[in-house]
Amino acid sequence: MFKSRGDIVYKCTVRLLEDTEILECEFHPSYKGKFLLEHVCQQLNLTETDYFGLRYVDAGGQRHWLHMAKLILKQVKDASPILFSFRVKFYPPNPLLLKEDVTRFQIYLQLKRDLLHGRLYCTANEAAMLGALIIQIELGDYDPNIHVGNYVTEMRLLLRQTDTIEARIQELHREPVEGTPGGSGGVQGMSTQEAERAFVKIACQLDTYGVDPHPVKVWDHRGNQLYLGINHSGILTFQGSRKTHHFKWSEVHKINFEGRMFIVHLNYPEKKHTVGFKCPNGPACRHVWCCAIEQMLFFTLPSSSDACVYSGGGLFSWGTKFKYFGRTEREILERDGLLAPRDTQKEGSSTGGKRKASSVPATPSTPMTGDFGYSSLPRSTHSAPLEESGPDDTCNGACLLSGPAVDIALACNDHLRTVQEEAKPPGVVHVAALPAEYSRGSSAEASSTESAGTLLPAEPWPGTGPARFSLLRAFVPSFMVVWLTLALLAILVLETDWPPLQYLRRKPELVALRRQYYAPLKEYLKRKVVELF
């Protein structure tokens, strides 16, 4: 337990990966998230703590990861009772490279949980093999005197556990492992550690490995329902249980969000693309953005020092500042001796010291002078590849398992408004069109109108001095009112989704005006205000 530093001590409950196991903890108001995670890992004898995190749900029902560098009490101030869930936050690309068996066992427990709750999509054959491996781990070798009847039914292994698949699991449990006398590809004869490694090896090669589905809609007139997944390889989209797109981190240039819109900027050899996804609400969109940013930085940054990200916000919201905290995957592998250390002195001199990852597009209108955009960050995944290729992990549109995303979508559909028949925001394209060519429409430049300044004579005309003064007194307020009205009208057109103004928003001139002048100016002012405070 934590030692209290005063009279006020708060209690919380931490659920572990096994639903039957919990930890009762105490923390002082001055403790940050890092202390609670380290305490839980210490109780589990975990030393490779960087892959794990604590998740909680706020009063509005939105899930969050406990930030390690912020006060615990400030993050869960409205929660009663205070409840956390210990979960794997960063799924390693190859869990077999982990140093500690206890760490690999926690990864196994998380994957077993994902399989049970339907987050780990797989074919019927893969589901049967994974189920048989769980049986082998928990019950040991098949014994006809002990394992009688349909003993698999008593164990909940899959989200949809049918009689057919249960029979196949029992069959695999009885068959000897391949390579032994009479072996036919079963699991009998495997030790607990071998079965765990085999389970993890199969699971980590599935498309949905490490994916927590987020319900979103594509920003188009149809508003197709998709599920967004983010893991070590990039950003994936799923329709039902079928993977539709995979945006690798090497292709992702920037990630930002505006209101309910989660926006991904992509760089392909032929041209740039921008993809927009509409989340159920603003907090859900911010959560998706935070998850994507953390995954991207953890698996791509060579070093976590001074990595800051700014994004989000509209006219009356200055957005979000996100400070990455903790080691990156490369730093972990270097510490464990799996990668050669970098020449930090040389790299530090070449990068110029402090690094910031900005979500503001690096366009000629907003040059990245002092800060570094995503385009300057390395994109290679530093984990060593798997030792050999695994089984076929394609779902072919007929996966046995359908995850909780289906239930989430049913719950969210009541809150999701139908996407209106309106033009896409500038630069946001339909995800189904990627990476195929598409037409951006008219790109006519905005015709800039300049107000001609009134030239006043250096010397006042005879007899007109007082009249000129009165004219200026009347002209200046009128001039300010006119420009203020025009500014408010421009903000109303460019920032709102008011249906009567949709026709104006689709004008090529206004589209070009927003891209070339309005958006860069707004981002510049937002950054200055954020830096000021």
DSSP E strands, number: 16
User: What share of residues are in beta strands?
Assistant: 15-25%
Helical residues, percent: 25-40%
CATH superfamily of the largest domain: Pleckstrin-homology domain (PH domain)/Phosphotyrosine-binding domain (PTB)
Strand order of the largest sheet: 9-8-7-6-12-11-10
Number of helices: 13
Overall geometry comes to elongated
Kindly identify the CATH topology of the largest domain: PH-domain like
Largest sheet: 7 strands, antiparallel
Class computed from helices, strands and strand pairing: alpha+beta
Overall radius of gyration: 28 Å
Question: Can you identify the CATH class of the largest domain?
Answer: Mainly Beta
Tell me what the CATH architecture of the largest domain is: Roll
In the residues, how many domains can be counted? 4
SSE string, helices as H and strands as E: EEHEEHEHHHHEEEEEEEHEEHHEEHHHH
Overall mean pLDDT score? Answer: 74
Low-confidence stretches: 1-5, 344-470
Key structural traits:
533 residues; Ubiquitin-like (UB roll); Acyl-CoA Binding Protein; 4 domains; seven-stranded antiparallel beta sheet; five-stranded mixed beta sheet; 16% strand; disordered N terminus
